[in-house]
Design a protein that fits this description.
Strand content: 15-25%
Pfam families: Sacchrp_dh_NADP
Protein name: Saccharopine dehydrogenase NADP-binding domain-containing protein
InterPro entries: NAD(P)-bd_dom_sf, Saccharopine_DH-like_oxidrdct, Sacchrp_dh_NADP-bd
Oligomer: single chain
Organism: Nocardioides panacisoli
Bound molecules: NADP nicotinamide-adenine-dinucleotide phosphate
Helix content: 40-55%
Largest sheet: 8 strands, mixed
Number of helices: 15
Length: 390
């Protein structure tokens, strides 16, 4: 079915899970009245319970992600699929493949670099042919960082009189007091346990992916240091975010001839800096040992997540500092609970943006800045995520 003739604008997969449930609630409250949306999952009973809880007569579609025929049927009926079915390395590939094949736009919440590199290797060319936009990382990973860098480039260009002609060095510094869900914990442990496979996928992608002509864009590893202006200790943060930012820099000429981005966590005191790196390092090591990994998974079960009260007290900031030819700009992206309340908002707004907004023409695996840039930035600002120049 051509994309224009589909029954639904958006189908949300994973609505029976923790983050999917919040995304369904967000759509029920905030989707435009004429948006045709539905929820999908593997259990009719659980989907009916979600529909009853939402109090909206939303259609329910049953499909297990391991059932290729059921997936093809669902993705053929919608313009956009938004999915929270994770860990994505475990469950995600068939849905990306079905969307790439059917020319259906796709967005997800993955923060798993190996998954994104593998879908690039396997599905990018298929999606480019069908016209599907495959947009990973439409949650806290990596929207505040990707659109924050995009916004910062716009502010820098303005300050420089319209165009960036010299190399740009940018750093992003994340801070938050939030906690995580079972699904996120399981996804992180899975990713930590596959360091070798992650490297292999990254190398294979680097060999295959074309580079921009006459320009460069790189994610540069940082060193622990102190930012005197912000008053934070900076710890290099090896998440998916710097790679997504660098991909946007490669795709969009407005990032200038030579773009370099470094990603950090910001902590107020050195004690937290040391505690944070030791804790993350210990978790990464523990994830290598299968029995310990399984014990850890039991401590935070899938389907669980931070309470409403905990989420209401949570916040995030991402500070950006960008310098080009002696000119510097400082910006900040900020909002409430990053991992769930704001993530549900970001995923839902991304899905709506892909379905109804007038976006640049793109296809294949694309970043949020590349696929939706200004339209998504405007949407997120309108619903309480702040992008400001400081
Ligand atoms: N990047 C970010 O900022 C961010 C933020 C939040 C979450 N996430 C990611 O989002 C994912 C979900 O997290 P969560 O806490 O919401 O997890 P969760 O509560 O465990 O939800 C997982 C969902 O996947 C569904 N599912 C599992 N296997 C399936 C299958 N074979 N077929 C169809 N559906 C299946 C589950 O359905 P049942 O209910 O039937 O089991 C459930 O709806 C994780 O990968 C997490 O890392 C990322």
């Amino acid at each position: 079915m051509a994309a224009g003739d589909r029954t639904y604008d958006v189908v949300l997969f994973g609505a029976t899970g923790f983050t999917g449930g919040l995304t369904a609630e967000y759509l029920a409250e905030h989707a435009p009245a004429d948006l045709r949306w539905a929820i999908a999952g593997r259990s009719e009973t659980k989907l009916a319970a979600v529909r009853d809880r939402l109090g909206v007569d939303v259609p329910t579609l049953v499909a297990d992600v391991s059932d290729a025929a059921a997936l093809a049927d669902v993705v053929g009926r919608t313009k956009v699929v938004a999915t929270t079915v994770g860990p994505y390395l475990q469950y995600g590939a068939p849905l990306v493949a079905a969307c790439a094949e059917a020319g259906t736009d796709y967005c997800d919440l993955t923060g798993e670099p190996e998954f994104v590199d593998r879908t690039y290797l396997e599905q990018n060319a298929v999606a480019e042919r069908s016209g599907a936009r495959i947009v990973h990382a439409c949650g806290f990973d990596s929207i505040p960082h990707d659109l924050g860098a995009y916004y910062t480039i716009q502010q820098l260009a303005k300050k420089l009189g319209g165009e960036i002609t010299a190399p740009v060095k940018m750093r992003g510094i994340v801070r938050s007091n939030a906690t995580f869900s079972g699904g996120t914990f399981h996804s992180a442990l899975g990713a930590f346990s596959r360091a070798k496979q992650m490297r292999e996928a990254m190398v294979a992608r680097r060999r295959m992916e074309p580079r921009p002509e006459g320009r460069t864009s790189r994610a540069v590893a940082g060193k622990p240091s102190r930012d005197g202006d912000l008053g934070y200790w900076l710890l290099p943060l090896p998440t998916i975010d710097p790679f997504v930012v660098a991909r946007s820099g490669a795709a969009l000429p407005e990032y200038g001839p030579e773009f370099a981005y470094t990603h950090y966590a910001g902590v107020k005191t050195l004690r937290y800096a040391v505690g944070g790196s030791v804790g993350a390092g210990a978790l990464a090591l523990a994830a290598q040992v299968p029995p310990i990994r399984e014990q850890l998974k039991k401590r935070v079960p899938q389907g669980s997540g931070p309470s409403v009260g905990r989420r209401e007290k949570s916040w995030f900031t991402v500070d950006f500092v960008a310098e080009s030819g002696g000119t510097t700009v400082r910006t900040r992206v900020s909002g409430g609970d990053p991992g769930y309340t704001e993530t549900a908002k970001m995923l839902a707004e991304s899905a709506i943006c892909l379905a109804v907004d007038d976006n640049p023409k793109t296809a294949g695996q694309v970043t949020t800045a590349q696929a939706m840039g200004d339209a998504l930035l405007a949407r997120l600002q309108a619903v309480g995520i702040t992008f400001e120049t400081r």
